[in-house]
Amino acid sequence: MAQEFTPLITIGPRVRKSPFFEATRRYGVKSFTIYNHMYMPTSYSTPENEYWSLVNDVTLWDVSSERQIEITGPDAARFVQYLTPRNLSKCRVGRCLYVVLCGEDGGIINDAVLLRLAENQFWLSPGDGDVLLWAQGAAIHSGMRVAIAEPDVSPLQLQGPKSPDVAKALFGDWALDLAYYELRETRLGDIPVVLARTGWSGEIGFEIYLRDGQRGDELWELVMAAGKPYNIAPITPSAIRSVEGRILSHGSDITRNDNPFTVGLDRLVDLDQEADFIGKQALKRIQQEGVKRRLVAVEIGGEPIAGGNQHFWPVYAGDDVVGHVTRCVYSPRLDKNIGFANVSADQAGFGTELSLDAPDGRRAAKVVPAPFIESKKKI
Hints:
Blueprint: H1 21-26, E1 31-35, E2 38-43, H2 47-56, E3 59-62, E4 69-72, H3 76-83, E5 96-102, E6 108-118, E7 121-126, H4 131-140, E8 147-149, E9 154-159, H5 163-171, H6 174-177, E10 183-188, E11 191-196, E12 205-210, H7 216-227, E13 233-234, H8 239-244, H9 280-289, E14 293-300, E15 313-317, E16 320-331, E17 336-344, E18 353-358, E19 361-368
Parallel strand pairs: 3-13
Antiparallel strand pairs: 1-2, 3-9, 4-7, 4-8, 5-6, 6-7, 9-12, 10-11, 11-12, 14-17, 14-19, 15-16, 15-18, 16-17, 18-19
């Protein structure tokens, strides 16, 4: 199938540039998107070439557009709990957690990685969306003593099976002792950073959170130099690997119309905890009534899908539209087209035969278990 045409994007002063913007251009970035009001790279070579670099070697991504939201103050811990249905009572200092943020109706505002740097200092690292404004709005009538701001913090992702080698070269042996979803405040030379064992790749990896936006170019070159013996390559977030690992993408797999139960994130909801949080009563009602829709994994027939889907493709059961494809890719390792579809709950069972409208015509699809390829977590 021919790849759909992708228009150019104009670079201008209205949209923010990351501290690594000039470095990404120097290293051959070919395209950008706008994510959280900032330019984010979307390609250096081809999706397949970048995918193989990720699964075989080590890669560096500019994800500064994951704009951090810092929550501090005497009531910071209580307020962060108010924002999410996940129980945070065991989130100690030095830990990270994956969380969902829900509205009063139980719909998902965003998903995020939560980092706890100090007793009363938290960062939220969200997907694309104005979470800063939402959190500030939630604080106004909360009666809690908190300060909410965007700090000078810009993350890089260091991902792939050789990422531990690069992290060791940069930081020393202790980097290999970080457990999955742990963090540590440190310095690289005199550059202040936070190193976390997190990432969006489905592979072993780290995130390096730069805490001085003036040092972006310097940090980029330090990481690239340390990674040279391990065939490091700059890439962008891999849609192929994220779909393989069932790593969801906010704005496509997760939207404001979805709740945690719809998209299979039930594990992030604790309705029995004593703490109150936004959407608690709505989520209780949704759990009791059951969901009307489900996000499912699908295998899709036909020739390899090049470039994924630029739109939500309609999904059919017989002649009836029952949902839409949220994302789809061709997996080189599986040699098949795979993706996610948001469908009516009665069409969500494994083995359900469906069809969908792709640009080249109707294709067969089948609901299957996920993840297609497990994410790697242990060094």
